[in-house]
Amino acid sequence: MFHKKGLLSMNMIIKISLLTLALVVIGGLFSMLFAKAPEKASESLCRSFNAARINSPDIPTIGKVVPNACKTIHKEVPGDGYPQTKEGAMEHIADLSAKCWYIWLEGVSNKMFDLQWTPFSKDPCFICYSFTIKENIQDFEGTKLRTYLGETEYIVRDASDQCYPLGGGYCFSESEGKFTNEVRETQEQKCKKLGEKCYISENKRDKCLNKGGSCKPTCNSKEARYSHPEWTCSGDDFCCIQERNYITYEKYIQEYKGKGALFVPASRFTSQSEMYAITFYGVADDDWTSKIGKEILRLPVGGQRDKINSIVISRLNDVKNFCAIESGATT
């Protein structure tokens, strides 16, 4: 009996060893594959694999069974399609910061990093982008970028019940006002659970109306005109959005999906060959701010850095030696 148990244990050890070896090989193959992927494809793959990882099981001594498929991408700022000014540079940096947050699932999970893969580093972080400022761009202060992130609109909040699969929609017991078109619901069946039905505007071109905006010839003083293919109005009307439904870059990171923090420790952005980084920091066991300067990483009121994910815009040299890049990641 003892011999059989011992044999069983040995078989289990062999299986675990083979599985570990297979995962290491697969991780290496993924790394080689994604290193050659175009930028947009790399960003999409990174987000997809991050989503798969947080839902994958943990195996003792191995960790998550889905390897990381992310790689650091270098940018010259401002890029094509942006004004070639310091304002254009700030807009590009803001968009990259929001994209980094999106790729790492918008703060919905506090378990983005498996530290079993990174025994030699304490900081669970990943540098999404490194970037340089183009030579002809005027320098600007870090405080200016911080203000830009806090005041500039990034997206518009869908203020409807969001029951329609194509966006928007309201739950009513029967049609109301302009909302006379009954439609099938999303899989969540929000309206059905309330004993109601999902309605959208009688004119399907009024996407703005379906999502909580107003379609009218002129917006009032508390509204802003919004132009976007997914927020259209029929006829010659404009899509008017209440100010409270505009979300800045800062609010997008802090509260749109999950809770997050945004830090800009770089005091100045200059075109004089300095390299910068946009880094995603996961939840840490200890307070990593001591490593790169607590005095320049100011937390939101009531916030605790070690309890939420963060985006940090800094000099590359300030973070590159602290980030724990997971097995399978390519930089």
Question: In a nutshell, what does this entry contain?
Answer:
The protein is α+β, with helices and mostly antiparallel strands and 331 residues long.
Which features characterize this protein?
single chain, 331 residues, alpha+beta, 2 domains, five-stranded mixed sheet, three-stranded antiparallel sheet, 31% helix, 20% strand, globular, disordered N terminus
Q: Radius of gyration in whole Å, from Cα?
A: 24 Å
Which of globular, elongated, flat, extended, rod-shaped describes the shape? globular
Q: Enumerate the strands of the largest sheet in spatial order, edge to edge or round the barrel.
A: 3-4-16-17-14
Helix tally? 9
- In total, the number of strands is 17
Structural class, judged by helices and strands? alpha+beta
Query: How much helix, percentage-wise, in residues?
Result: 25-40%
Order of helices and strands: HHEEEHEEHEEEHEHEEEEHEEEHEH
Biggest sheet character: 5 strands, mixed
Query: How many domains would you count in the coordinates?
Result: 2
Contiguous runs where pLDDT drops below 50 for at least 5 residues? 1-5, 19-26, 59-66, 117-121, 292-303, 325-331
Distance between the termini: 51 Å
**Beta-strand content estimate:** 15-25%
Mean pLDDT level = 80
